[in-house]
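dude i think i finally got it to work??
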Amino acid sequence: MNIPQLIDMIDVGILTIDSKYVITGWNRWMENNGKVAKEKIVGKFLFQEYPNLDNSWFKRNCSSVFRFGSFAFLSQKIHGNCFPFEPVSSFYSNFEVMQQDCTVGPVRNEKGEIDQIFIVVKDVTQIAVYEKQIISMAEKDGLTGINNRKFLDDKLLEEFSRHRRYHRNFCLIMIDIDFFKKVNDTWGHLCGDEVLIRVTSLIQERIRNQDIFARYGGEEFVLLLLETELEDGLKLAESLRKMVELEVMNSNGKTFSVTISMGISSLHDGIADSKDLLNYADKALYEAKNSGRNKVVAIN
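look at this
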């Protein structure tokens, strides 16, 4: 088997360009994924066909290979995707563009001079999907599918940093399902899981995409409302309380209802860090539960 045939058969993209960025080679993988035949693209100016590559980082890497004969590696995590190809399988539908890593290296002529460079394009979409799944698993609560405690702690630190820089306020609501132990003892833990899932689903339907909702532990949840004043936070909390109270739960043919208690706090001069904000909300929640439950209390 000769070299051109081998290059056409391997499962990576290979193209070559000269020092003026004119395409001189284009293998079958590039034909199939780029949806353009070799005879129609060879001789074309690379940046005319792929204007997104007409940028400083791509040219800098190519120039380095031409000048020093070294290799350059272009990662989709750092540089994005060089070629806007579609993902090969619908399994990767959460990515609109094939995720790629590219290697750039020298092509020497008979005199040992570098008159062309090659670019190897590797499809790493499957790896990116797995990485995304692993990250999601690390940030999500396994039962409810909402954010977990670690994710919340990280976001609180980020928002405090943003507040110090831009003075954007936010408030925090701590939520507890009333008499949840009684639900487990009366109807069983599977029913209790269904209640947790249903309550979180109801709350998610009413909050904004930018708000951060997380399971804090057990039957406690935290809702972080970005760029929200205390008064608006109280209005939302009260609407959530009424919504949950009116919801009819159903498990194994049994119908019942649950209520939630909420404590809310917002930023002010006496709050030094995220722990202070959580402590204020926790105290407010404690007061809500001790004064009859199914209510919203604010401490600021």
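The mean pLDDT is 91.
im so relieved honestly
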